[in-house]
Write a structure and sequence with these properties.
The structure holds two protein chains of two kinds. Chain A is of the alpha/beta class. Chain A is built from 17 helices and 36 strands. A five-stranded parallel sheet of chain A has the order 12-9-8-20-31, with helices on one face. In chain A, helix 2 crosses helix 3, helix 6 packs across helix 7 and helix 6 runs parallel beside helix 15. The longest helix of chain A has 21 residues. Chain A starts with a strand and ends with a helix. Chain B is about 45% helix and about 15% strand. Chain B contains seven helices and four strands. In chain B, helix 1 packs across helix 4. The termini of chain B are close together. Classes of the chains: A alpha/beta, B alpha/beta. At the A-B interface, helix 4, helix 5, helix 16 and helix 17 of A face helix 1, strand 2, helix 2 and helix 3 of B.
């Protein structure tokens, strides 16, 4: 390879970063620098402790000036982490930032290999490839795409509510889409919140009404996002609005239609009360529902199902005419610049652990069911009672149900220790029952959480360390008669115990939503193996995703409590607002282009483009690529039979020289 | 193949969004795997031109690994479907060329499957190690000699050999028979 390249004389500066011991501990950095120094066109080759530090970046800039460098290669960490940093440094040195190539010798080399000689050989090969490739680099310009300031928030739980309000308060328009008939999510079902024991409704409902009354928020409940097209700054989103058969603008929430319904009594499990009470086919989700509008369950309502009903609800609403059985499912298209996904979690189905007897013994309940029992607006008006109406004298709480368990879910659901202790304190407050908590480890790592644990101990709540083996009603002693018995190995006492109780509360863990995979695909996000949405970087980009302009908040990213969900929602809102306020996004110039002289006009590229960026110019008989639509995948480039499509940053000659480079050194 | 010092050389083409990120995750998770694979980053597995694979083999690679997003998960909607179609055609071509199909592998590895990067690479390295060196550059030199024009072969031996070998690319310094 000649120093005098077709792009003029090539003067390459090569820098290998020690990254402290991260790289230098496994790769002989000076040896790599010496090896690269001998390659043609390399004017400077150095190793340095931290290339991303200010002095490291200044080193590049100084060398560009002093040694008249016109190509820069940095071997350090992943380009996904620091490519931007070094491009900026190159630009600050007066070069076009795309005369730069990065070599990943940390994530792909020093961190994953154990033999120093092998790791060094690999670093040399990878660096050789980059040095070969960078010769072909050309000056490129980024393009700016304007950003629609409107934001879509998907999911109306506490995370979605907080994100929507934060964005709306900054003056931007927000669309909040919620699948259920009311916003509020799981938090609305809770009685009190740990560790302050303030009532969930008291802190949530003001935020819910603020959403409804906010001039910048368009709230669509009973609706779902069904299609997302476009890209950051310019998303086109289709929302399916299900018919609630009640006109939202006309309904005053007086609930007379509910009283008038031909079903005299509630007959169907009430979702909000975790199935502990019954509702009618026409109902309002809960007293503080937002919007405070009646909804009809299409699978239960006689009129919707059969068209044969006396329609007493219409008569009851004669003055307002809010009932509307002619409503149809509607698809609405909206344009937004950014999307915040806050779709929450699903509770673990406790029936999956049959030895705990949920669904078998009537007095085995989930923590969420107990929340509703404790709540004064719940099915028992705040009375903690057994199914037969008696008050429990002893309550056992089993933690880690569907969490930290290789048979179900391996992760810790993070909130169960705390919410179980909260419920234990509430049970003590409402009844005089003995409460025993069965735990593996108490995890209370939050502000005021450990103190809350101390408080639980002081209030006389018993803690037994051990994973419960089973719940049985087989009495072996007189005091066990008529009770359920928890069999557990007390790992602190060192023997197996049988503890009879009246009521058992299962702290069911959190799971990704059942349709998380479909949602992930729709928004072009990634999932971890467990099904939680994947953040771009676990520490430094915790609410960003791999798709620009799509952010995640709350439990859809992983189990978390209310403070963390709110904090994440605020962070996601800030990220979306930052992009919207900037007004534009710089697009990576990795677009494809047609080399017209070579194009034979075969049109084989045209149908390949998922973005319809390729069209055919009939007059010229050549394909054309619209750079603004091209996203830079390069599929058309690889398929062009005459080799007449190029891709900036990923030219054939660049890749061929990389192949040659990686194979040139063993 | 009998040379114990021989190490398989594998060139990998990983898409930016899934498999390259997964390889980063493998690094962050400090999973340890064989060092024989050299990764070239592309935006999408759809960018993998079959020529890249043939070129890598011709240049001395003993195997080629292509990594992309799972079907249905492509960052660009459907680039990986194009990859599959090209890959299947290429496999037939490689078969006809007498190149074992285990040498060229297509794997879907999502951004969260760092551990899979480790298992796929280790598995592939072992497979290719079992197959032995591909030696395409040497074979190409031999083919050129065999198919050379009779007039050329009639030339004095050192001249003919010299001319033809000079036409070949420099042999990579592979320590094997």
């Amino acid at each position: 390879m000649n120093t005098n390249h077709k792009n003029g004389e090539v003067r390459i500066g090569f820098y290998i970063c020690h990254c402290g011991h991260n790289i230098a501990g496994m790769v002989d950095c000076p040896a790599v620098a010496q090896f690269i120094a001998k390659l043609p066109g390399v004017a400077v080759s150095r190793d340095y402790k931290y290339m991303c530090s200010d002095p490291g970046q200044e080193l590049i800039q100084q060398d560009i000036r002093e040694h008249k460098l016109n190509r820069i290669v940095v071997a350090s960490c992943s380009p996904l982490l620091h490519e931007h940093t070094f491009r900026n440094a190159v630009a600050a040195g007066g070069l076009n930032p795309f005369f730069f190539q990065m070599v990943n010798i940390r994530e792909h080399d020093s961190w994953v290999h154990t033999d120093r000689a092998e790791a060094t050989a690999k670093a040399k090969a990878l660096a050789h490839a980059a040095v070969s490739r960078v010769r072909f680099h050309r000056a490129l310009e980024t393009t700016r795409v304007s950003i629609n300031p409107d934001v879509l928030v998907v999911g109306g739980g506490i995370a979605g509510i907080h994100a929507a309000l934060t964005v709306a308060n900054s003056g931007k328009k927000v669309f909040l889409v919620e699948r259920d008939p009311s916003i509020g999510g799981h938090m609305a079902q809770f009685d009190k919140t740990f560790p302050t024991l303030d009532c969930a409704a008291c802190i949530l409902t003001p935020k819910m009404s603020a959403v409804r009354s906010h001039e910048n928020i368009t709230l669509w409940t009973y609706s779902e996002v069904v299609k997302v097209e476009g890209y950051v700054g310019n998303y086109k989103v289709t929302v399916k609005r299900r018919p609630r058969y009640v006109n939202e603008d006309l309904c005053a929430g007086c609930m007379e239609c509910i009283t008038a319904c031909v079903f005299k009594e509630g007959k169907f499990p009430d979702e909000f009360n975790a199935g502990l009470s019954k509702r009618k086919p026409i109902y309002i989700p809960f007293a503080q529902a937002v919007p405070p509008v009646v909804v009809i369950d299409p699978e239960r309502c006689l009129q919707v199902r059969t068209g044969k009903c006396k329609k007493t609800c219409i008569e009851a609403c004669a003055d307002r005419h809010a009932m509307d059985f002619s409503q149809k499912e509607e698809l609405v298209e909206i344009q937004v610049g950014n999307i915040i996904v806050a779709t929450g979690f699903k509770l673990f189905d406790a029936k999956r652990i049959p030895q705990y007897g949920y669904g078998q013994f009537p007095n085995v309940v989930t923590a969420l069911e107990l929340e509703r029992l404790v709540n004064s607006s719940g099915p028992t008006a705040g009375e903690i009672v057994l199914r037969d109406g008696r008050r429990p004298k002893s309550v056992g709480m089993i933690l880690c149900v569907g969490s930290r368990d290789v048979k179900t879910n391996r992760w810790c659901s993070r909130t169960c220790c705390m919410h179980s202790m909260k419920l234990a304190q509430l049970v003590r407050e409402h009844t005089d029952a003995d409460v025993t908590v069965f735990y593996m480890d108490i995890r209370a790592p939050g502000k005021g959480y450990e103190e809350f644990y101390d408080k639980s101990l002081k209030e006389g709540i018993q803690f037994v360390r051990g994973r419960v083996a089973e719940v049985t009603d087989w009495a072996m002693a007189p005091e066990e008669e008529g009770k359920m018995v928890i069999r557990v190995e007390d790992t602190l006492a060192g023997f197996v115990r049988r503890i009879p109780v009246d009521m058992i509360v299962l702290a069911a863990g959190m799971e990704p939503q059942a349709d998380a995979q479909a949602v992930r695909r729709m928004f072009n996000m990634s999932c971890g193996t467990e099904g939680w949405f994947l953040e771009k970087h676990p520490k430094l980009a915790p609410v960003s995703t791999f798709t620009d302009g799509v952010f995640i908040a709350g439990c859809c990213q992983g189990p978390k409590d209310i403070p963390d969900s709110v904090a994440q929602a605020g962070a996601a809102a800030a990220e979306a607002m930052a992009l919207a306020d900037k007004g534009y996004i710089e697009q990576e110039p990795n677009t494809a282009y047609i080399i017209e002289a070579d194009c034979s006009g075969c049109k084989s590229c045209v149908p390949l483009c998922p973005y319809t960026a390729i069209t055919f110019d009939e007059a010229k008989q050549k394909a054309q690529i619209n750079g603004a639509l091209c996203k830079g995948c390069g599929t058309c480039v690889a398929s062009c039979p005459s080799g007449s499509i190029g891709q900036n940053l990923f030219e054939d000659e660049e890749i061929f020289s990389e192949i040659e480079g990686v194979l040139a050194y063993v | 193949m009998s040379d114990p010092k021989w190490q398989p050389r594998i060139v990998a083409f990983f898409c930016n969004w899934c498999t390259y990120t997964a390889a980063d995750l493998a690094g962050v998770s400090r999973f340890k795997y064989a060092s024989n694979v050299r990764v070239i980053r592309l935006m999408c597995s759809g960018r993998v031109d079959p020529q890249f694979i043939l070129d890598a083999l011709a240049e001395g690679a003993d195997g080629v690994l292509i990594g992309g997003c799972h079907l249905g998960d492509c960052h660009y909607s459907e680039g990986n479907y194009k990859t599959v179609r090209r890959f299947q055609m290429l496999q037939r071509l490689l078969h006809d060329m007498g190149i074992e199909e285990q040498r060229v592998r297509l794997e879907w590895i999502s951004a969260s499957e760092g551990e899979r990067v480790k298992t796929v690479i280790n598995d592939m390295v072992e497979q290719v190690r079992a197959l032995g060196p591909l030696n395409l550059p040497q074979h190409r030199a031999e083919w050129d000699r065999e198919t050379a024009h009779p007039a050329e072969t009639a030339l004095p031996a050192e001249a003919a050999g010299g001319v033809q070998l000079a036409g070949q690319r420099a042999q990579p310094e592979v320590a094997h028979a």
